[in-house]
Amino acid sequence: MVVQPQRDWLSFYQEEDDHSAMVHLSSNSITTDADNDVGLGRSRLVLKKGIAEFYDESSGIWENIWGDHMHHGFYDDGSSVSLSDHRLAQIRMIEEALSFASVPSEEEKNTSTAKIPRRIVDVGCGIGGSSRYLARKYGAECQGITLSPVQAERANALALSQGLSDKVSFQVADALEQPFSDGQFDLVWSMESGEHVPNKMKFVNELVRVAAPGSTIIIVTWCHRELAEAEDTLQPWEKELLDKICQAYFLPSWCSAADYVKLLQSFSVEDIRTADWTRYVAPFWPAVLQSAFTWKGLTSLLRSGFKTIKGALVMPLMIEGYKKSVIKFTVITCRKPK
Fold first, then answer.
1. In degrees rounded to 5, what are phi and psi of residue 187?
2. Which of 24, 79, 103, 274 lies 20 to 30 A from 161 at CA?
3. Please, what is the Cα angle at 22 between 21 and 26, to 5 degrees?
4. Is the per-residue pLDDT at 9 higher than 60?
């Protein structure tokens, strides 16, 4: 079921074209007029500026405490883990996403119908953790994009220091206006960046556009829960909870996994699959919250800036959102037709 939330809650910036207008008829949660409000009274340009500044401020703290992977970890049910285990869980998240999408390893290339990716794009790359991991795993060339100049500079510096500058590179660019040719990549990778993108239609269009025929697209992202058949929108208390998270983390309005499926179907991609991995990320936010209130975390926060401090204060709301099943940690994958 594709949900149809009320426009005042789920509305996404959209440059109208023939294709978007077609989808607009069936789901007003996906499109709005160009450069209009993308949620909470913010324009697209204001949102982009906020995202860039938020990650310019916070990325160094994150790397200092958590390392170079700026995303959730994947855990077994009921696991109790240390910080080192959390870092391993972040690597496991990458491997689980690849496995879910049936992207083969080098050892599996002779028994799999899918091809080994040799050209990868990392959309919303952070400081390049996924890019460097994938480049090593597959011997692939990987290009990453981020809105944060600080992240791009740090990602390139880490690539150089790790002997990967001939394989990976990073630049400041918008996920809605990717600086790549059509059909350029064997694997299109978006690890926890889609939640920042205000125009889901154009976002999906760009992911499909830069994917080569027969290539895999992987989106791991935060969604809101699916609506019941009798519901037109989320409950007021759910909207209020998500609004507060949006304000702190510079997010546009949220969508559901079903919204993503509807969009992907409109582009005629194949093998669309989704899964709710919320139960597998449960230990993550409590651990992030705990690390923020250590001496190292507190002193780093005080040096960072207002946006980072505000983000730290909202972390309990992420935990609440997961516990109350308002937030769903979702993986979505598909294949571009050959």
1. -135, 125
2. 103
3. 105
4. no
